[in-house]
Amino acid sequence: MGSDLEIADIIVRFGKLYIQKHQPSAEKMKVLFNIMQCRTADMGGHQEHCDCCPEVRYSYNSCGNRHCPKCLAAKQAVWIEKLMEQTLAVQHYHIIFTVPHELNAICLFNRRLYYKALFSAVRQTLHSFGYTHYAVETGAVCVLHSWGQNLTLHPHIHCLVPAAGYTLDGKWKQIGQQQKYLYPIHQLSDSFKGKLLDGLKRALKKLNKYTEFDGYIQAAYKKKWVVHCEPSLASADHVIKYLGQYTHRVAISNDRIVSMTDTHVTFITKDYRENAQKKPVSLSGVEFLHRFCQHILPKRFVKIRRYGIYNHTTKRNLELQFVPVLSKVEKILSDKKKDETTAQRIKRLTGFDIGKCPKCKTGRMHIVRELPRIRSPSRTIQQLLYVLLQ
C-alpha cells in the first residue's frame, strides 16, 4: 500500500462522470461534496507557529460527515470509552446477523425500510431467545454494516451481547457460562429469518409494493441463512475494543487505496475464503464511486443501537444498577476526564498529541491566525459539484 491517494482524489477525478451516468440523489451528492472539501482551505482552519522552532502549520477543519474516512478515528476512540462506561463487567459474545443477497433488491429500493426491518428482526430475535433460553431480559449493542470487502452491497449487523441478564423477579443472572455459544446457531438463524422476511412483507404491503418483490422474498425463504456466533472472548473491555473496530468504519478507508489511473481505481481487499489473504481489486472509477455511494445511510438514520438492558429507557424503567467496565479498568482517571480538553482527550485515547510540533518534536504549536471558511455562491449541491469537478 503506502499510497497517498484518498477518496477525495477519486471524487475529483471521476465525480463528474459518475454524476452524469447515475444521477445520484442530493443526499449522496452532499456526502461526496463534504468528503471532497474535508480538511482543505475551503473548510477554513487556523495557522499555527511552534514556540521552539520556525515551523509553521496550516490546519484545516474536518467536514464531520459520518461517511468521511478522515473524520472517524477520534470519534471511534471516544465511542469505545463511552461504551465502556455503560457496559457490564462480564464476558460478551459477538453475534453477526447476515442476510442473503437475494434481498438486496429491496435494500436498493428503500434503504430506510430495509435497515429498519433488519434492526427490528435482530432486536426481536435476541429478546425472545433471552427469555426462552434463560428467562432473562438480556441486551445488545448493535452496529449496522452494509458492505463487503469489494464494496458490494452486503447488509449485516454486528452485535455485542452480554453473558448476563435481568430476571422477572429483579435479580441478575449469569448466562451462557457452560457453553461455547450463547444460543443454538440453527435456531437463531431460523428465527431471525422468519422475523425479517415477515417484517419486510408487512412493510412492502403498506407501500403496495409487495407483488414487485415477492419473487426475491420467496427465493430468500428457500436459502439457508447463517448467523455467525463467536465464542465468548476475553474480558469485557477487550470485547468492546474489538467491536469498536466495526463502529465508525466507512465502506473503504483511504489506506486501502493503492493506485488510480485515468480510468480505474485499485484497492486492497481481504479474501475470507482464503484465510483473509489480501488481494488487489480494480474497478472503473465510476463503478468505484457507485459502489461507495450505495453505502451512504439515509439521513439521520441511527446505525448504532442499544437494546434490552443496554437501552437507556429500559435501564431507567427497570431501575437497573450495575458496575460498568470502566469503574474497574480506569477508575483512577474518572475525575481527571471532567476537566480535560479535546486535545488532551485525543492524546489519552489515541496516543497522538495534536499540539506537538511535527518538526522539532519538543515545541508546542500555538494558533496565531484564524483562517475563514471559503463561502461559495448559493447553488445546489449538484451545481457546486459540476463547477468544482470541471
Could you characterize the architecture of this molecule?
With 390 residues, the chain is of the alpha+beta class. It has two domains: 8-65 and 353-389, no CATH class; 87-251 and 295-323, no CATH class. The chain is 40% helix and 21% strand. It is built from 13 helices and 14 strands. It has helices spanning 7-22, 26-37, 73-85, 104-109, 111-134, 185-206, 210-222, 236-247, 285-293, 312-318, 326-329, 342-350, 381-389; strands at residues 45-50, 56-60, 92-98, 136-137, 139-147, 153-162, 164-167, 172-174, 227-230, 257-260, 264-271, 277-284, 304-308, 365-371. It has a five-stranded antiparallel sheet, sandwiched between helices. The protein has a three-stranded antiparallel sheet with strand order 2-1-14, with no helix packed on it. A three-stranded antiparallel sheet has the order 4-7-8. Helix 1 (7-22) crosses helix 9 and helix 3 (73-85) packs antiparallel against helix 8 (236-247). The radius of gyration is 23 Å and the shape is globular. The two termini are 29 Å apart.
List keywords for this structure.
single chain; alpha+beta; 2 domains; 390 residues; three-stranded antiparallel β-sheet; 13 helices; five-stranded antiparallel β-sheet
Précis, in short:
This protein has 390 residues and is an alpha+beta fold.
Helix/strand-derived category reads: alpha+beta
Order of strands in the sheet with most strands: 9-3-6-5-13
Give the percentage of residues in beta strands: 15-25%
Helix content: 40-55%
Number of helices: 13
Instruction: Sketch the major β-sheet.
Output: 5 strands, antiparallel
| Overall pLDDT metric | 84
